[in-house]
Structures are given as C-alpha cells and as structure tokens.
Specification:
Length: 316
Amino acid sequence: MKRFWLGLTLFATFLVIAGVLLYGQARPDLGPSVSVTGGNTPATVSTSSTDITAALQPRAVTPVLSTPSSTPALLVVNTPTVATVTIQVTGGTPIAGGVNLLRIFPNGQQPVVLGVMHDDGLNADAVAGDGVYTLQVSFNESAAGQIQLQVSAAFQGMLKRVFSPLGSLMTWNRYSDSVISLIYPPGWNTSSQGKTLSLISPDRATIQASGDENDAPANFTVTLLSKPVPFDIQSFVASYNAGWFLNYPNVTSLILNGKVANVYSDTGDTANYAPVIAAFIVGDSSIALVTLNDPENDQTPTDTSVFSQVLASIAF
C-alpha cells in the first residue's frame, strides 16, 4: 500500500511539472500583436505601445476662439439695448450647447454666464455651421463704464474648456437739457456756460487743474447759434468768424440724425488751424457748432473717433 501511495505522489508531481513547462511554451506573446481566430482567417489586433501612446496624445490642433465682438459696440446709460455678440471658432467644433458667453468683472467677482451661443442660423446667427457663434443679450446699464466679455467652449476629448481673449463693450453717459442731447465717454466732465457746452476728458481736466486753461482747452465744445432766415449753409459759414473755416483743406457734407451738417477739418495738415475740426449742424431754429480743440503743444490730442461718436449722437 505504501508503494502505491508513493507511486501516486510521484505521478502527480510529474504532471504538475509537465503542465508548468507546457504553459510556458504555449503562452501567447503580448508584444506588438495578438492573433485572434475569427472564422477561417486569423485577424490581427494591434496592441503596440506606440499605438497606445499616440491615442493618448493631445489634439493635433488646439481650438482657437476669437475675441468676442458686439453690435452695437456702444451702449448708453439707462437705455435698454439688445446687443448681438459673435465669436469665430477655428480648429474644432464645440460640443452641442458648449459655448458660453461670460461677463467678467474687474473686482474678482465670479463671472456670470449670459447665455449659450449658437451656430444654427437662427436668432441673429447669420449662417448655420460656419463656425461663427452668436448670442443676443439685453443690457440696461445704470452707470457708464466698460463691460468685459469672454467666451468659454467645451470640446470633445478635452478636459478643460478653451477661453477667448477678453472683449469689451462700452457704456457712455448721456447729457440732455431743454435744447440739446448728446452722449460722452465715461470719466469725462461737462460744463455749461451760456449757450456753450464743454466736454472735458480726465487727462485734459488734470492739466486744467494744474495750469492755464488756455493750454488745455475743453476737448469738445457745442455752441448753439441763431439760424438766419432765409438760410443757406455755405453763406452762413462764409459769414461766420470772417469766413475762417473756408480756409480748411477738408470739407465733408453729412446727414446726422436727419439734419444737414458740414464738417471742416485740418487733421494731418501742416497749417494747424484751430479748432482741429468744426461741424455746423443745421437744426430747425438754430445751428449747433461742434468743435474739437487740441492744445497748441498737442500734449493731450483727442481721439477723432470719440469726436465722431459724440457728433453722431447730437440731437436738438
């Protein structure tokens, strides 16, 4: 009996050793590929480390968002306005509903999501699927200043959202009295004397406070003049201030808020006429003379685009 059990033990040990040896020879190679039998034809499934690494690499092209732009680009205090904000997305298509328009606050306050932008050709979006995303937003600002806008977008396969550069939307003040109304930039001051309204920028006000006002005149003045009857604008300009403005090299005729205007300018001219720009706007019973005034030393020249915005807003 002892011989029987001894033989059985040796046989079992032999089987274990043989099985281990056979497993080591038959174990498949987990290197570059594994053969899998499917039907009568073996199929190869790639498991190379190179392919796995490539799959885990970041996107070859990083999506880019343009700076958000708004139409209109200018708001007025206490004036409800619908602005159409757009942004161009390149280098990828965001996930559906993944493009958010944010309002950014300079004091570190949490950004506010104004809405989800869309590229479906609806609700002011011009063309569906062109990569331009759009959102219409209602604003009614109680104070003049700058509104900062930013867009964040989510993309398939990216853990973090992509952000656009900051865009801005300005809110201007409104001046209004019994005769005239206009808008002017944040931080500017107004002063009225007789029939003349002066608009003064912060840097010009600083110079005025520290020296002679003649060295830093008001950036803009608006003076109401009597309108003669009968009236002809060319004859009126020729008679005003001894025909001074007829010497200006550039003359443009415009229609501003339904009223005829002649604009006289010497910007860029070596003659250095003063004021730099003068506009005669013809009203029903009076004429508004609007001037852009820069100091002789050009220490604080005024942006002519600001003058154009003010001029276009005048109503009387």
